[in-house]
Amino acid sequence: MNQLKTLLKTVKSYTPNLDPAMITHAYEYAKEKHDGQTRVSGEPYYTHPMEVAQILADMNMDEPTIVTAILHDTLEDTSATFKDLEEKFSLEVADLVNGVSKLTKIESQTFEGKQAENFRKLLVAMSEDIRVLLVKLADRLHNMRTLHHFKDRPDKCRRISKETTDIYAPLAERIGVHQIKEELDDLSFSYMYPEAQASITNRLSFLRKEGNKIIKKIIKTLDGEMKKAGINAEITGREKTRYSIWKKMQRKNISFEQLSDIMAFRIVVDSVEECYHTLGILHSHYPTVPGRFKDYISTPKPNGYRSLHTTVLGPENQRIEIQIRTLEMHQEADLGVAAHWAYKDGKKKTDQKDVTSYRWLRELLEILEQSQRPEDFLENTKLELFQDRVFVFSPRGDLIELPNGSTPVDFAYAIHSGVGDKTVGAKVNGRIAPLNTKLNNGDQVEIITSKTQNPSPAWERFVVTGKARSHIKRYVRQQQKVEYAALGQAMLKKIFQQEGYNFSDKAVSGVVKQLRVDDVEDIYANIGSGHFKASEVFKAIFPAHKAEVAQPPKDQDPKDYALAKRAGSDKPLPIKGLIPGMAVHFARCCHPLPGDRIVGIVATGKGVTIHTIDCETLETFADTPERWIDVSWGDGDDSPESHVGRLNVTFLNQPGGLGTVSTVIGKNGGNIVNLKITNRSVDFWDILIDVYVNDTKHLNNVIAALRATPEITSVDRAKGR
Asked: Which residue is catalytic, options 19, 51, 62, 77?
């Protein structure tokens, strides 16, 4: 009952006209439904939802949110139903409780998969009403405050703490609830890195006595400067959290003793004009630290945070961080989106629709739609949540906020997924720029598109936003499936012909259920990727057939012969040393050609990748000899397939120089498929050229012809990407 009295007193402090009946009824209902249930600490279970409600009341949340917090575990942990809550309270409360209720058990083989699926559900729920997230954060905060009751299970404590820092703390930061974010991080820190936490705590305790004197002296000095300027200011100083200190030590790779800004100061003034006036006073009296000024008033953070940040060499010649803001900004900085539910003259300050229009939330939901695997979704959303931000402009002057390190491709996908998919080029500040250019604050970006363009797999190597990465991965998966399906169909068709059967999709469709796939295309794709063997699929289709061993060419042993096929080609390529029907891919790091000494590396989901014997990449597989396969090219001088040979070419920088290179290659039967300028000077150009050739002999002929050309100074076969 003391919990209820304290809760009602808190809510009445910001809602004078509150009718306590609804909250009291929720308390009595939760107490009844949770009767007999206890926490690990031995306390009655209903004390937990009451503590969650108190956390939200301290944030000035509205009555439906408080009631939801009290009832948030009733749907799953008790006999209460959605209809019961709707009848006894309201549809709004029932919907909120339904969204916050602990997520049902997800059948998943991995913890990561379950965590990701839970996160999916949380995002869907909070997209309907972001108060769901606020209650969930308060629930997590109280669970973290009481996690010490599981001290005999350190693995569980670390797992819960990691989930908190991976998901809940970043979400709290994203909606601006800074006070919850800091406490979640600090509590998680104590379980994830207890030794580091204890060390920092001890060092802070040692410095605190002297530090308090310095804080008081700095506050007194700053207060004097404000009074001289006629500014009414409230100045406070505080110690940074242990977690934030540790993160800074990790980020900058410095020791505790090297930290010069463990203390932070805040100046709260009456108006925006006084914020900038105060900044001018500080900068005129104290030297500023370069690169440490940020104006979040003119350009607020995505979560609505507004403040001026600066670092100066203040009194005692000590580096100090100072935040300057108004009282309203200060309240929103601590409470974030929760501040929108604070009552003013009996009415909410903003409408719920304004709050749920957060762009980042819509983008996370779009990532959800693009991701096929829960693990991919979780990885991409972590990218969205953790990155620092950069602000750039569209040609029309629209401000677009992106993670730090973003490129024009990230910008294009932030505008619209359709724009990202069709991007062919970009202009940054009016000049053509590579698509992997890192954008800086204030850049103006213009995207050039083409209807015939599709996402490039290479983009995935430099994009940083989850939205861009999820779209690119989805396209690559679709393209891979098409290529694998074409390869797998040809491999299965070959076996049909060898065994004297007419091939048809109808024959294959009969084993779709047996192989536990969705359709015939999935069967072909699994064969092409190496997950299914074509011979095993054939046996499933014709279980009564007695298989005959196919005769390899020139009386070779059957185990020494395999058919490799690239998508879009019906011509087989013989490689000795592979199981018949296995998918084969040629490494792009060394571009093996018929005539090279080669080795095979088994890759799950990709079959076998063929490398040249001197490829540097092979060093990475030195510890896994079981993945190595001894292979060689099949007999025969003429290859039915073209292969990519890569050349390093240096030629004179003169009119027609590049044309001469391409002409020589063409006259010798080569076909240029890709070209990259690696160095350009006044006298010479260095380029990488990918050329379609038949084998090493053909490539050597091309090299010899190039070397015989006067304009070309050097030609070598290149290795590497």
From this structure: 77
User: In DSSP terms, which residues pair with 607 in a beta bridge?
Assistant: 603
Q: Where are the alpha helices (DSSP H) in 499-615?
A: 505-509, 520-529, 534-541
Residue 237 β-bridge partners: 265
Q: Strand runs (DSSP E) across 327-456, as ranges?
A: 343-344, 347-348, 389-393, 399-403, 423-428, 431-433, 445-449
The string of pLDDT tens digits covering residues 199-228 is: 888 877 766 665 567 778 888 888 888 999
Instruction: Give the Cβ contact number of residue 546 at 10 Å.
Output: 6
Position 369 pLDDT exceeds 70: no
DSSP one-letter code for 78: S
State the amino acid at position 104 in one-letter form.
Answer: T
Collect all residues with Cβ–Cβ distance below 8 Å to 260 and sequence separation of at least 6. Answer: 318, 319
Which DSSP symbol is given to 314? -
What is the Cα–Cα distance from 510 to 517, expressed in whole angstroms? 11
Through-space distance between the first and last CA atoms of the chain, rounded to whole angstroms: 70
Gap between the Cα atoms of 321 and 303, Å rounded: 21
Q: Answer whether 0.70 is exceeded by the pTM.
A: no
Residue 405, phi-psi category: left (phi > 0), alpha (psi -120 to 50), beta (remainder): left
How far is Cα 569 from Cα 572, in angstroms, rounded to an integer? 8
Q: Is 76 part of the annotated catalytic residue set?
A: yes
The two structure tokens encoding residue 549 = 């061993």
Instruction: Please write the tens of the pLDDT for every residue from 660-693.
Output: 999 999 888 899 988 888 888 888 889 999 999 8
Pairing relation of β-strands 319-326 and 389-393? unpaired
Percentages (nearest 5) of helix, strand, coil residues in the chain: 50, 15, 30
Quick one: which H or E segment has residue 713? strand 712-717
User: Residue 559 in contact with residue 551, Cβ under 8 Å?
Assistant: no
Catalytic residue among 32, 43, 76, 95: 76
Alpha helices in 101-241 (DSSP H): 111-128, 131-145, 154-163, 169-174, 178-192, 194-228
Residue for token digits 């601006």?
Answer: 176
Residue 594 DSSP class: B
SS3 46: coil
Q: Which residues contact 336 (CB under 8 A, 6 or more apart)?
A: 172, 175, 176, 177, 178, 303, 304, 305
Domains of the chain: 2-193 (1.10.3210.10), 196-352 (3.30.460.10), 465-544 (no CATH), 549-640 (no CATH), 643-717 (3.30.70.260)
